[in-house]
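Much of what follows relies on a compact textual record of a protein's fold. The record below shows the convention in full:
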Amino acid sequence: MKVKSGLVAIADTRLTSGVECSIGKKIFVHQRDRHSLFIMTSGLRSVRDKVITYFQECLELNDNRYNKLYKAVNGLAEQLRKVAQEDKAYLTASGLYFNLYAIVGGQLEDDHEHKLYLLYPEGNWIEIGADGSPFFIIGNSGYGKPILNRTITPDTSLNFALKTGLLSFDSTRVSANDVDFPIDVAIYQKDSFNLVEQRFEREDVSEVTQFWQQSLSSAINKIPEKWMDSVLKKLSPDEVESLF
């Protein structure tokens, strides 16, 4: 999520391979002087690890050439295309789809503000929040979007964005078996050049998720019901009684 005051990134850690599940970090963070960036990924783990390893080596050898975040995204895209040239044909022959997506966020020394980009498997990218939605989800995206669509705007505070992001994740977690705790959170405050990371286990936020579930049920019970009269009139008294 990109808001005026900064960035909030949330990633689960569940890795699936057939029927097997394991835990692995999906956020890569790089910080040096006035260089702060994170990379979140979704797709084949083997492709992700290779691309990040190649890109990390680029940062170690020549980090100074990335004075703006879009240049770092271009550098990551170069490594993504390189891995595609090396592995894509073999993966395709094995029935696997080369499908690495990445969200890159942060602020480098010559960026006038924090930035957020979505990188596609082909190596092209878009800037998130430039003219449209201030957030993007990769991976299992369907279940968590509604609450973000209803609440997140560029004027949202980092505090509100983090809380809403947790609820978005929890909506996905209860609906999909390939998403689960623990979650990794990265927060960046505008012009701070300091990325803060934190991992949350299920028990760390259980009070919040339980409160949300109870509040949601309570809110539904309080929804006005006059709009239901037209359909209730078509039911017999016994049928109406059975609804309550």
In short: Residues 2-204 form a domain with the Glutamine Phosphoribosylpyrophosphate, subunit 1, domain 1 fold (CATH 3.60.20.10). The longest strand covers residues 35-42. The two ends are 41 Å apart (CA to CA).
